[in-house]
Amino acid sequence: MFFDDRRRFLRQAANAGMAWGLTSLFGGSFLRGQTAPGSGDIARVYLDSRRIMAPLDHNLFGSFLEHLGRAIYEGIFDPGSKLSDASGFRKDVMEEVRRMGVPIIRYPGGNFVSGYNWLDGVGPKETRPRVLDKAWNSINTNQFGTNEFMAWCKAVHAEPLMGLNLGTGTPEEAAALVEYCNLDQGTKWSDLRRKHGITEPYRVKHWCLGNEMDGPWQIGHMTATEYGIKAQDAARQMRYVDPSLQLIACGSSGPFMPTYLEWDREVLEQCYEYVDGLSLHRYFTNTPQDTGGDSAKFLAMNLSMERQIDETVAVCDLVRGHKRSPKKLWLSFDEWNVWYRARSGDATNGHHQEAPHLLEEVYNLEDALLVGGLVNSLLRHADRVKVACLAQLINVIAPIMTNANGLFRQTIYYPYNWGLQYARGSVLNLLVESPTYEVSNMGQVPSVDVAGTLNPQDGKVALFILNRELSKPRVVELNWQDKTPGQVLVSTTLTGADLKAFNTFETPEKVAPQAFAKPATTNNRTRFEVPPRSYTAIQWSA
Ligand code: AHR
C-alpha cells in the first residue's frame, strides 16, 4: 500500500539523516556575515536605519491548512458544533486567526493535494462524494472544498495560496481550476462557479504547482525533468487563462533528500521562464539521530534553515545565469516547523476515519524557542523569501488546538504571533557581535540571535532576540547609530525553567509570555539582560 511506502521512505531518510546530519546538514561555520564573535559576555547590536536588508513582504508569516486529520473538519469547519456559525465555520477559530492577522494560507495540501480532484469539492453538498484520501488513509466527505475555503479566507481576511494537483491531476485540470476561480463569466468553468452560486471571481494570485514531487511517498511522484516539463505545461495553460498569476514551482522536500538541489536545478532548467518562485520545505527535529537530544544544538537549527535558503538561492541564480534571464526567482518557504514526535504509526494513518487525530504534535518551550529562531532566519532572508507558511495552523502540527468546547494556544503560537504583530516595514541589516558557544559538528554558534524591522511609515522598530544559552542570562547592548528610539511600546518574553514544559486544555498558560522590563535608552545606548532559554520581542515608537 502506498501509505506504507511513504512511511518506509521517511524511516530510511531519517536513518540516512544520521549520516548526513553531522556533515552536510549542519557542518560549516554558522557565524553569518552580520554576526561576529563578540569580546566578553555582552552581545552588542548595531542598528542603523540606513542599513536596510529588504522590504518585508508580510506573506513571510503565512500558514497552511491541509485536508489532514482535524485541520479542516473539526478544526475550522464543524457544522454540528455549538461554536460554529451558519456556514459551519468555528467562530472561535475564525476570531483567533483574524486577531493574529495571518496574511496568506496555503490549501488544500500537502501530500493530500496530489490525489485530490477539486471537482469533488464543489457544487451541491449532497452530491459530493465520500473519497478515500490515500495520502493519509482517511475519508474526505468533501463537504468543505474550494468555495468554502474562499469564503473562510474572506472571513478571516487572509489571501488563499492555492495548491494544485500535479500528481494524478493534469495541467488541463489545473487551468480549469484557475478558470473556475478567476474568470468572470462566459466560459465553461467560470459559468460552473456561477451555477454554484458564486458570482464574483476570487482572482486568486498565488498558486503552488504541486507538492513535494521529488518524494517517493508522493502520489504521482516523478523525475525532476518529468515534473519540470509538467509544471511548464501547467504554468502555460494557467497563464493563458489568467496572465497575472504568481506561480511557485515545487522545489526539493529538503536537505535530507538524496536529490537535494539537483532536483531544483533540473526542474528549473525546464520551467524557469514560466514560474515566479520556488518552494522549500523543512521540519526540525530534536532526536537522538539529528541532535543527540541536545537542546543547545537544537536551538541552533534555525541556522541550518539559512543555509538551505542560501543554497537554494544559489541554484535559482545558477539557472538564471544558464538562461541569461533578467528574472530573479523568489522563494516560497511554504512548509516549515518543528515536527518529529507525531510522525509515524497511528499519528499518520487515518484508518479510513473522518477527521482522525493525525500529526497532533505537542509543542514544548524549546520548540517555541527554535520557532523564534526560525522567524529570525526568515526575516534575515526577506530579500529572497517572499512567502513562507508555518505548517500548519489548526490541530495538525499547529499553534492552535481545538476540541468541542474551545481552543488553546500551543507554545509555538507566541513567537509566530510576535512576528505577525510586530515585524513591519523593512528588515534591518543589523550587525550583531555575540558571545558564542561550541556545538558538535557546527562549530561556534552565537549565543544571541537577533533580527529586527523598521517601519518607514510610522518609524516603529521591533527586535526579536533569541538567547540560546541554556543556563546563562545575556546582557544585550543596542547601539543606535543614527536615531534615538522613542518609547517602548511592547516588551515581552517567552522563557521558563523547564524546556520540556507544554500547554494543554487543562493548563493552557503553562508556557506563556511574561512581561519583560522596558529597557531604558541613554546616549543612544539601550542595555538589558535577556534570561537564559528565552525569546524576547521589544517594539519602540519612532
Ligand atoms: O505538513 C505535513 C506534510 O508534510 C505535508 O502534507 C507534506 O507536504 C509534508 O511532507
Walk me through what this model shows.
The chain is α/β, with parallel strands linked by helices and 542 residues long. Helix content is 27%, strand content 24%. It has eleven helices and 27 strands. The chain has helices at 2-25, 91-100, 146-156, 171-182, 188-195, 224-241, 262-271, 295-298, 302-323, 365-380, 413-422; strands spanning 35-37, 42-47, 52-55, 62-64, 104-107, 131-133, 138-140, 159-163, 206-209, 246-249, 277-284, 330-338, 385-390, 400-403, 406-409, 426-428, 431-434, 436-439, 443-446, 448-454, 461-467, 474-480, 488-494, 514-515, 521-522, 525-530, 534-540. Strands 4-5-8-9-10-11-12-13 form an eight-stranded parallel beta barrel, surrounded by five helices. Helix 4 (171-182) packs parallel to helix 6 (224-241) and helix 6 (224-241) packs parallel to helix 7 (262-271). The longest helix is centred in the first third of the chain and has 24 residues, at 2-25. The protein is globular. The chain starts with a helix and ends with a strand. The site of alpha-L-arabinofuranose has 9 residues, from loops.
Radius of gyration over all CA atoms, rounded: 23 Å
How far apart are the first and last residues' alpha carbons, in Å?
60 Å
Shape by Cα distribution: globular
Structural class: alpha/beta
Q: Which ions and ligands are bound to the chains?
A: alpha-L-arabinofuranose
Instruction: Give the integer mean of the pLDDT values.
Output: 94
Q: Count of DSSP E strands?
A: 27
Report the biggest beta sheet as strand number plus sense, adding barrel if it closes: 8 strands, parallel, barrel
How many helical stretches? 11
How would you write the strand order of the largest sheet?
4-5-8-9-10-11-12-13
Helix percent reads: 25-40%
Task: Note poorly predicted spans.
Answer: 14-26
